[in-house]
Amino acid sequence: MPPADAPLLLEVKGLKVGYPVQRRMVTPIDGLDLTIREREVVGLLGDAGSGKSTAALAMLGLVRPPGRILAGEVRFLGQDLLKLSPEGLRALRGKDLALIVQNPRGALHPMLPVGRQISNAYRAHGAASSKEGWQRAIDLLRNVGINDPERRVHSYAHELSGGMAQRALISMALSSTPRLLIADEPTSGLDVTIQAQFLDEMAATVRGTGSAILLVTQDLGIIANYCDRVVVLHEGRIVESAATREFFIKPQHAYSRQVLSLVRAPATPAKFAADIAPLIEVRDLVKHFSIKGRDKKVQAVDGVSFAIRPGESLGLVGESGSGKTTVGRCLLRLVEPTSGDIRYRGQSIASIKPAELRRFRSKLQIVFQDPYDALNPRYTMEDVIREPLDLHTDLDAIGKRRRIGELLDLVGLDPKRMGEKPRGLGAGALQRLNIARALATGPEFIVLDEPTSVLSPLARVGFIELLARLKKDLGLAYLFISHDLTTVQHVCDRVAVMYLGQIVEVGTTEQVFKRPAHPYAQALLGAHLTADPMHRRVDRPPVNALAGEIPSPIDLPPGCYLASRCRHVTEACRVTPQTLAMHAEGRPVRCMRVLAGEVPIGGSP
Amino acid sequence: MSESLAVADHIEPAGADWLFRIGGAIVALVLFLAAFGPTLAPYNPTLTTPEVSSPPPALADLPRLILTAIVSKNTAPVHWFGTDASGLDIFSRVISAPRIDLTIALVANGLSLLLGISIGLLCGYFRNLGTEIIMRVSDVLQSFPVFISAMILVALGGRSIGNIVIALAALYTPIYIRLTRAEVMGQKVRGYVEAARAIGNGEAMIAIKHVLPNSLTPALIQSSVTVGFAILLTAGLSFVGAGVQPPTPEWGLMISTGANQIVLGEWWPSVFPGIAISITVFGFAVLGNALERRYAAG
Amino acid sequence: MLLRTILRRLAVGVVQLLGLTVAVFFLIRLMPADPVSRFVGINPSKAAYAQAAKAIGVDRPISTQLLHYLGLAPSQGKGLLQGNLGTSWVSNAPVLKDIATALPVTLELITMAFIIALIIAVPIGMLAALRPGGKTDKAVFVYGLFAGSQPEFWWALLFVFVFYFKLGIAPPPLGLINPMNSPPPPRTGFYTIDSLLAGDLTTFFDLLHHLMLPVATLVFILSGPIIKMVRQNMEQALTADFVLYARAAGMPGSTVARYALRAAMAPSMTLIGILYGFMLGGAVLVESVFSLPGIGQYAVRSILAFDYPAIQGVVLVITAISLVVYLLLDLLHAIIDPRLAQE
Amino acid sequence: EDVPAGLNYDGPAAAIPTSQTGMVNVMEPLVYYATKEVNSEGVSIPDFGKFEGRLAESWTFDKATLTWTFKLRAGVKGCGGATLTADDVLYTFARAKSVSGAAPIGWFLSNVGSIANFTPAVFGDKEENKKAKVLGDEVTKVDDLTVKIRQAEPNALFLPVLTIFGLMIFDKETMEKHATKEDPWSHNFVNNEGMGSFGAYCIERWTKDNEFALTANPDYYRGKPAIDRVVMKKVPQSSNRVVVLQSGQAQLAQSLTPKEYDSLRKAPGVKVGGHSGNQNLFVHMNFKSKPFDNIKVRQAIAYAIPYDAIIANGYFGQASAWAGVVPSTYPGYSAAAEPYKTDIAKAKALLAEAGFPDGKGLEAFADSFALSYVAEKETTVGPIVNAIQSSLREAGFPVTLNPMPQTQYGDRQLVKKDLPFAINEQEKPIGVDAGYATQLFFVSGDKGGLNNMINYSNPMVDDTWAKARVEPDNAKRDAMLASIQKQLMSDVAWLPVVEYKTQFAWSDKISGIGWHPDNSIRFFDLKGK
Ligand SMILES: Nc1ncnc2c1ncn2[C@@H]1O[C@H](COP(=O)(O)OP(=O)(O)OP(=O)(O)O)[C@@H](O)[C@H]1O
Ligand SMILES: Nc1ncnc2c1ncn2[C@@H]1O[C@H](COP(=O)(O)OP(=O)(O)OP(=O)(O)O)[C@@H](O)[C@H]1O
Ligand SMILES: [Mg+2]
Ligand SMILES: [Mg+2]
Fold first, then answer.
1. 3-state SS record for D102-131
2. Does residue A420 share a domain with residue A393?
3. Of A582, C13, C69, D255, which has the most beta carbons under 10 Å away?
4. Alpha carbon A490 to chain centroid distance?
5. What is the pTM of this model?
6. Domain of residue A583, residue span
7. Cβ contact, residue pair B270, C303, below 8 Å
8. Best substitution site from A192, A288, A289, A331 to test ligand 2's pocket, by max atoms within 8 Å of Cβ?
9. Which residues lie below 8 Å from residue A292, measured CB to CB, with a gap of 6+?
């Protein structure tokens, strides 16, 4: 952390940015003041849509068209960017002031090789030949940890994974050693493992060059682990600015307090008697997708078994593409499993006939990731809830109406608004509506497929509380799919970790979070950014990190699926298929070395 | 993703869109004429008057003529747009034409919309060999040169309004199939479809109740543009002699009949109907565009 | 990969064309028109009628005719598969030869119109996109909508009335050259090229003079959709993240413009291809007003005369050219936009 | 369009005016009409009563054997360099009888002229048909310059048919040079390249359906033509033809609309003239279509036609009322005593008598009242049909207009003969004789009424014509023809409307325009100034 009297780098005063909408100006940024000192890492926290990106761009004197900067000044190294000539501004941008954005693939030109784009950025600030630029691009890509940069410079944006694209962007941003790097949610949309890798690399690189960072984010974990200071953006202005630790200990603004509430009150998991008959039992579930035009198959789910007791919530975590959603959809037979047995209260779901299956679905429900997408845009709230009632109950019109009112009330929506369409509602409200629909037929079990991932931090807090309440009041059981580990920690009684279609470890939430056994679980949880500013990740060397990216589920390795990325790999691992077996601690783990006690359990904080 | 949907809420409402209003006004006027044009026409649009090839009144005379027309009921009505070589009153024909042009355009469009949407839904929602074949056939149909195909159908099938309607419908159906199918394919992987399935709807039910209403927009937007182009095509067919029968009051036919007199300096028989087409089709294009911008976001 | 795509598209195209041929073949024969009457000439007797029906071969069963046309009945001579499109019943010349003389006229006309329309419309569209919602943008937008929805034949007539009849600047609407002059010696079939090859500048300028109004009409009509499309694509490109980012990275204005242009042009290719294909048959009305002996006119005359082989030939050739143009532009698109090459 | 250019002697295009223009300028007949006069508009008119020798220097007719003997002109040279002999004439008739072309025009004319053995037996593929196609002793060569032609019966049409393009003489030598085994009669040559003939002009260039250029035949037996080179070009759309003529790009234009001729009359440097020779307009009502079988209905229509408006607005005065069913210039024409006049009241009265007061009951015959006309002639006929429609509606007829393509019109009119109601302005009998017209149009179908498109059948007409056809005495023949025409008029077989002038427009730099029954200009007659 830089000294408090370090020279000022950036000073924003009374910034006001507007977008013309219907001949009116909406001003998401209205009177923003902000300072950043040299070498400082400042976190800009704010809810979705609060204007974080707008503010970040404005600090380079840019606005997304058709917006305009209406007032204020942005002093960078003493000169007001907004008064600078276009050429003067251009000379600063990309040289002293660099930017990384939320959607890295969108920021890369889709029709130019990344190498050419990096080279262009480099050559924009100094006379270099095209050949030098190209060479430099290769070096830069190597520096940000991209394997085989000679080949990668020829790739196009769509050929890169999100993580790689983000790295390419940062290599561009760092091509000229900027004084200030503005990173606008650089990791949203990336897996936790990749996110941690990326942030670590970014922090390390910037430390080496002595730049300051403005890190825009909605994620408290990121703030806690990487930032020196936090500024909170709310309703167009900075409402709070504090050193990170103070912020977590004593938030000032109401918004800050609300977002922090989740971190401050960990949930207490329920206890279950071991002999209760399971509500749902899955055995050796396999799902293969065939690929059009090729004879290979995607092995999305590869022998998954688990059980959920009534009233219990099981978390299913794992990197993107590990097959979590597919498991959830198989449970409701929204996709037909390739093989395996799924039992609901002992009755096999796999064998029910279609007509009966439809009725059966009133018992099992699902809530999807994107609440907006999951609602027919033409239906009002009332229509949405009425549909399952029409299908599964004999209520008369009045009865239905009453029930709709009750359900809305139950999920914390105002029944008076039942005539509204989804368009006008926020994501949090929509997700509540989705829950209400799922509850309409009185199910005992709900699959929640990343229900919080698109919610803003504030909405997320409320939604998690709702889930907990419903579970308690209605005795619901959940299969809670997520890669947001903080949320899982709060909602779930037990957690299953998935990797490439297989469950690698199952245990109580406490077990898995405190003492992850499987190397993959260790890495995953090691990458989890706990919102705890006392144990900052930047202050200690990361352990258990995974190398590389998740292999394709089409060409799976013959032995352990993790072999290519695991720190503990042996020759035997590469050839021996792994099985899920009971570990000495009383939970199943899929790793022969862990089972043999060769790899220590835990290893993460 | 969903929070930024707030942007979609800023789409301008119809009333505020000046283009929408212009387009709407033009289309409303044309619809009005389609309903009442022949009734309002001072002369029977298909019967000759004794005056042949008489030019429209000079601009300077207009005020006086308008006054006379209002004051005295007994004098013969003025030929506001002049008469053509047969002595037909051009004004009466121009305002009677929407009934023909619009009927052709609307019926053809309605037919193809109905067919196109049904087939599109079928082919988009249920993908199998049968529907694939339907798509290939529709591909072939769509690669036909439009105007020439229409000519073949009308010239060889006989010049009648019915045949024009069939020709246009045949040409436009594949467009709607394609649009609807693409939209259905996009919609059927949307979450709400899965959700509808999850709460126990049957496939046919989902297709009709959920997917169909949400897949109509592209076809409906297109249809406004298509109605305009159907009018153009009808007129074009008449122009080359493969359209409606004379002396049907139809704009293209009037232009075509008048075209011969242009080198003799008689511009009015073809200029007035031309202006009418020009404005009408523009109106539909504008309306279509406004609708597109209104609904493109959702 | 690319080659495979091309081959697959070509194969599909050939199948489509065959399907089309068969469809058109039956379609026109199912129509209630009677081509023989056109063929008999004056004072036909029943016998003479039968004679004529035999001469053009429509007395045979349809399936036999189809096999003959396709060239699957070797005893009957060459057919489609051997590259013979039959003989026109009206001109008595091979349809392929007729089309070979008519097609260059249309291609010349629409190519010239396309080039000019692009030269005019692309900068205008871009200019409009630079200031979305500005006065220029609104004007250009309305113009684009207007020009794209006009009866071209009527505008052609108006042009003739104004520029020929009233002002006398343009030549009379009588084809490509002064009707009493002879065309340049045919080498390529394209009059402009042939006249230049022959070093005949008088004819060349006469040609340009005659092409003035028809090309202007088409440019007017074409500029509508092109402007609309360029404007829209450019506006989209300019608000794209990568353009914003290029600016944030401090790239010079010229580079930023190149980024936007490249992104805007790629999707425009497809539409230009579709427009070009459409114009092949769609130029017929303009050809008709200016008496240009192009493929459209040939189609009209064949259709009105029930000249079946000619009708089939025209449909086949126009569709084939359209398919090739689509393919070429898709390829170009794929070269510019690597995302497509992947699919 | 209505004016494709071509020379396809054997093809369908032979029916097209410009093809005929090509043929009559490059080919030469055996005999032709003498010139009668030059009319006030500067157009020369043939004398239908007087024949003069062309390729034939003189001829005689033997009544007993019905044999004509033609003495051919010596030293006549064709474009190919060949000299005319009797073999050329034999070749011409043999070719006609072979009916090998697509349109058997030569055979048809010979048949109409009653040349022996030119019977319908030529059609068909049976052995006897094949024999019938070979030229026999009906046309024989006496010596190199003498030919005999025998008729099967006396028929006054013999000389008239010889003047028609379909029996003009080929140059056998040139023709046979282009013959092949599959195509012994050189149809390919004639249809696509040129012509072996002895006419005033030779083909220089010919782009089918577009234009042809002719150069004067220096060896032409009547002397080298005054104009060395003639280019005839198809200019679609009559208004464009006006333009080329006015701009001086062309010196002669034809097939303009009456309105255009009228406007050109005032134009500087342009002359317009013509002759009311054989073109006319009539209403066609099919006897097989109800209610046209009702004579009262036919008469009612006759009284409802706006004759004067048609002459004024349709023809700009260049037409006159027609009181017969045969061109009034033709030998044997007889005018009706009481031609029809516009009289709506009378029309209504007749309609009521027919059982349709105020047109009530006619709705049932909507199809019959679709007034057909040739769509391609819209510009010319449009104003006329519109006037007729309006006037007939006033009288109570539910008339609608029904333009149809030339082809379809021709098919329904002449082949299917099922056109109920039509306006016809294209039936000019090319054979210059009232009897020819009767034979063609009014004799019952089964008695040889080839173009009896209204399905008219009256035993009186059939019988009288059968007698008149072979009547050698001209006076008697004329009397019989007159009685036929009287009958036709009272039956309203055709409803004659007007005879209109065949017009041409030409630059004042040329003169010598002549009218001929085929309405084709003979370029040989033209003189430059
Ligand atoms: N082009 C635009 N036109 C109109 N309004 C816009 C536009 N872009 C953004 N806005 C509005 O400005 C506000 C701020 O947007 P901005 O993208 O800066 O927020 P954010 O905090 O970065 O959101 P997110 O968490 O989604 O990244 C939002 O309410 C948004 O609706
Ligand atoms: N319908 C399908 N057809 C083909 N492959 C599929 C299909 N659905 C899923 N897959 C593949 O199966 C694998 C598992 O997908 P799934 O969506 O279940 O993963 P996930 O763990 O839910 O990922 P995320 O965290 O991104 O939601 C992925 O590789 C995916 O590409
Ligand atoms: Mg943002
Ligand atoms: Mg998922």
1. CCCHHHHHHHHCCECCCCHHHCCCCHHHHH
2. yes
3. C69
4. 16
5. 0.81
6. 280-595
7. no
8. A289
9. none
